[in-house]
């Protein structure tokens, strides 16, 4: 993933820690922090492409300002990938959005 980061890709979950085997165990601990950084980056005047996977991430969409592009689908986890992630083509949609913003595409492989 270093290659992605070198191209400007930031990967983050809505909660940055959890307890093994417990879904969303620390979500409430991270909610304020996550809202703050999404709001800050989503409204700093730099157009970005945001990929929101799953309901928790999609809930942050209203915090992302105009001029940004949002690509969203079901989460790619084994529990929900068949509910809309497969076939959603998020990587090609990101590159299409980047092209519209006049930015270079990401080399995903």
From TrEMBL:
<keyword id="KW-0227">DNA damage</keyword>
<protein>
    <recommendedName>
        <fullName>Uracil-DNA glycosylase</fullName>
        <ecNumber>3.2.2.27</ecNumber>
    </recommendedName>
</protein>
<dbReference type="InterPro" id="IPR002043">
    <property type="entry name" value="UDG_fam1"/>
</dbReference>
<comment type="similarity">
    <text>Belongs to the uracil-DNA glycosylase (UDG) superfamily. UNG family.</text>
</comment>
<keyword id="KW-0234">DNA repair</keyword>
<keyword id="KW-0378">Hydrolase</keyword>
<feature type="domain" description="Uracil-DNA glycosylase-like">
    <location>
        <begin position="3"/>
        <end position="98"/>
    </location>
</feature>
<dbReference type="InterPro" id="IPR005122">
    <property type="entry name" value="Uracil-DNA_glycosylase-like"/>
</dbReference>
<dbReference type="InterPro" id="IPR036895">
    <property type="entry name" value="Uracil-DNA_glycosylase-like_sf"/>
</dbReference>
<keyword id="KW-0614">Plasmid</keyword>
<dbReference type="Pfam" id="PF03167">
    <property type="entry name" value="UDG"/>
</dbReference>
<comment type="function">
    <text>Excises uracil residues from the DNA which can arise as a result of misincorporation of dUMP residues by DNA polymerase or due to deamination of cytosine.</text>
</comment>
């Amino acid at each position: 993933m270093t290659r992605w980061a070198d191209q400007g890709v930031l990967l983050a979950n809505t909660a940055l820690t959890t307890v093994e085997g417990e879904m969303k165990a620390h979500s409430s601990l991270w909610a304020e922090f996550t809202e703050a950084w999404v709001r800050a980056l989503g409204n700093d005047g730099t157009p970005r492409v945001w990929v929101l996977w799953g309901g928790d991430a999609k809930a942050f969409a209203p915090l992302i300002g105009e001029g940004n592009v949002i690509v969203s689908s079901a989460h790619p986890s084994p529990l929900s990938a068949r509910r809309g992630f497969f076939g959603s083509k998020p990587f090609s949609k990101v590159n299409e959005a980047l092209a519209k913003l006049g930015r270079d595409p990401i080399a995903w492989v």
